[in-house]
Amino acid sequence: MQIDIDPRSDVPLYQQLHDRVVEAIADGSLPAGTSLASVRQLAGAFGINLATVAKGYDLLRQEGLVTTNRRSGSIVARDAASGPAAASFSDGWVPRLRTLLAEAVAHGMTDHEVTTAVSTELHRFRSGGDR
């Protein structure tokens, strides 16, 4: 899997790492059971602090997308084919969605622009993304 992060971005590196892994899981590039690079490997590849990578992986673990143990490292725990999300997932997801929608409205996007963007991105993930 190719992970691209931008050290000049306003988005923290750990968040960029998290987001790229989530996107790869969503588009099928990282199916459940796939081993992820170790924290040490990723930190070395990007020339960033181990704690930065660990923080990104911690977020993925908290969301239930990745499991980690000493023997096998970090592994993708679930993907779109893993069945319905836990009911508790919506408790955290809906408020984040609300904030994204609020940003779009605050910036003057129309309902049509928002729904078109959502449909486009969902289609991209369901069809395999940029693979």
UniProtKB/TrEMBL annotation:
The keyword Transcription applies. CDD domains: WHTH_GntR (cd07377). The keyword Acyltransferase does not apply. It holds the Pfam family GntR. Keywords: DNA-binding, Transcription, Transcription regulation. SUPFAM superfamilies: Winged helix' DNA-binding domain. It comes from the Bacteria. Residues 11-79 form the HTH gntR-type domain. Gene3D superfamilies: Winged helix-like DNA-binding domain superfamily/Winged helix DNA-binding domain. PANTHER family: GNTR-FAMILY TRANSCRIPTIONAL REGULATOR (PTHR38445:SF12), HTH-TYPE TRANSCRIPTIONAL REPRESSOR YTRA (PTHR38445). This is GntR family transcriptional regulator.
